[in-house]
């Protein structure tokens, strides 16, 4: 999914994310999502952060937020908006 929820309001985005997570967990699916909004990947099992075309970080949302790296800075910047 490439920026699948970028044009949606927060309520609609949350409903779609919850449905995708439920399907992923019930069916054992692998979902790959591209997003510029860190909040979209809170429920992801694994997040891969790309920087200049290379993997710069990999982990869960909580792991990446606690490292102080690029993902953590993106989350902090989003909270300031």
UniProtKB/TrEMBL annotation:
Organism this protein belongs to: Thalassiosira oceanica (Marine diatom)
Database matches in PANTHER family: ATP-BINDING CASSETTE SUB-FAMILY B MEMBER 10, MITOCHONDRIAL (PTHR43394:SF1), ATP-DEPENDENT PERMEASE MDL1, MITOCHONDRIAL (PTHR43394)
Protein name: ABC transporter domain-containing protein
InterPro entries for this protein: P-loop_NTPase, Type_1_exporter
GO terms for MF: ABC-type oligopeptide transporter activity
């Amino acid at each position: 999914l490439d920026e699948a929820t970028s044009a949606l309001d927060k309520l609609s985005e949350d409903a779609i994310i919850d449905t995708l997570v439920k399907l992923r967990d019930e069916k054992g699916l692998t979902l790959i999502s591209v997003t510029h909004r860190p909040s979209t990947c809170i429920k992801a099992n694994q997040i891969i952060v790309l920087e200049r075309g290379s993997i710069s970080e990999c982990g869960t949302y909580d792991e990446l937020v606690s490292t102080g790296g690029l993902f953590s800075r993106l989350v902090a910047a989003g909270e300031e908006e």
